[in-house]
Amino acid sequence: MLTLAFDTATSAATAALVRDGDVLGEAVSRAVRVLEDADRLLRESGADRAELTGIVVGTGPGSFTGLRLGLAAARGLALALELRVAGVSTLDALAAGAPGAVPVVDAGRREVFTLIDGEPAAVAPRDVVGALCVGDGAVRYRSVLEERGSEVPPDDDERHLPRARFHAALALAFGPPDEVVPLYLRIPDAEQKR
Q1: How confident is the model over 85-109, as pLDDT tens digits?
Q2: Cα(129)–Cα(132) distance, rounded to whole angstroms?
Q3: Beta-ladder partners of 23
Q4: For residue 129, with 0-12 CB atoms within 10 Å meaning exposed, 13-18 middle and 19 or more buried, which class applies?
Q5: pTM above 0.90, yes or no
Q6: Is the peptide bond before 61 cis (omega within 30 degrees of 0)?
Q7: Are residues 30 and 73 in the same domain?
Q8: Do both 66 and 128 map to the same domain?
Q9: 3-state SS assignment for residue 5
Q10: Are residue 86 and residue 6 in the same domain, yes or no?
Q11: How many CA atoms does the CB half-sphere of 83 hold within 13 Å?
């Protein structure tokens, strides 16, 4: 099984090409480059698009624009290549990359997305509880989290990235592209201002 996985929910987009659990290649870039990264990963691995058996996409929570871009790219590729798609939470992928850590994604508006009692939530950084916190929200709110007793790895630590290889590993059910939906925990900024 050859799977293309990517996540565009955070400030860094990640992509991975995975064959039967083995990572053939990975990329980290900006969300707008995710299709270019996917094409490069296929070329560098020597794999052909026709070999792809599924696409895994990060469903957030995260940046509204980033999520929309990632889902549109996944749906477009899946429809063009006649593939099935699986969605995986960005928070779950972050947690898989740092077992025992609390995933913290920058939500803007002085909030973060995290897991509270295993459920995704948008909260103030001071409300995050965990011995170890990872993600771009943990980096942004390092001082608040550390004041409350949490440890945050250095800014360039790999555990802050929702690596697409973890999305591929966590994907359980593949289905039609339109059945994968984003995990929005708030209404978009534009709607809130209205």
Answers
A1: 999 999 999 999 999 999 999 999 9
A2: 9
A3: 18
A4: middle
A5: yes
A6: yes
A7: yes
A8: no
A9: strand
A10: yes
A11: 24
